[in-house]
Amino acid sequence: MNKPIVTALTTIGLAQFLKIPYKKITDGKWEWEMFFETGGMPSSHSAGVSSLATYIALRRGVKTIDFALATVFGLLVMYDAQGIRRQSGELTIKVNDLEEEVERLRGEEDHHYHDEKSKRLRERLGHQPIEVVGGALFGILSGFIAYKLFEN
């Protein structure tokens, strides 16, 4: 069994699950579909790569190529999660609202047709910086706990 992979994948699953009670606390709604969504608190991307790097650091040491690869890979994933993917999500919101905005500019009455449109693009793609940090901290804790469980 590859313990670092098990650690990272378990951490990703736990982070995805934690989005559900977090959403309930912040918005007052149980949204079980959050388990399958990207975006939200904590970032499962950040959690997974942070747990992997932490486990490797504890097992092999911070001076190893393994740790260097995991860290650089993790930083790229976290940058992408909060940078590029977040910008894509914000652009998607604008695209989804564009047709309604064009009708408004034409002076047409809003019949709320667009509120129920089923072909809207997914708007939850990326993360706010705090969600990435939350995921990274959760991942570090998870990697530490997994190391203690597996290696002792």
Structural overview:
It comes from Pallidibacillus thermolactis. Keywords: Coiled coil. This protein has helices at residues 3-27, 44-60, 65-82, 84-106, 129-151. It has 152 residues and is mainly alpha-helical. The mean pLDDT is 84.
Short description:
The chain has helices spanning 3-27, 44-60, 65-82, 84-106, 129-151. By secondary structure, it is mainly alpha-helical. The longest helix has 25 residues, at 3-27.
Domain count: the total is 2
Number of helices: 5
Taking the sheet with the most strands, its summary is:
none
Number of strands: 0
Structural class: mainly alpha
What series of H and E elements makes up the topology?
HHHHH
Helix content: 55-70%
Low-confidence stretches: none
By oligomeric state, this entry counts as single chain
Span of the ends, CA to CA: 16 Å
Shape: elongated
* Rg on CA atoms, Å: 19 Å
Content of β-strand:
under 5%
Keyphrases for this structure?
single chain, 152 residues, mainly alpha, 2 domains, elongated, DUF212, Divergent PAP2 family protein, coiled coil
Write the topology of this structure.
Elements (H helix, E strand, L loop, with lengths): L2 H25 L16 H17 L4 H18 L1 H23 L22 H23 L1
Helix pairs in contact: 1-2, 1-5, 2-3, 2-5, 3-4
InterPro entries: DUF212
Protein name: Divergent PAP2 family protein
Keywords: Coiled coil
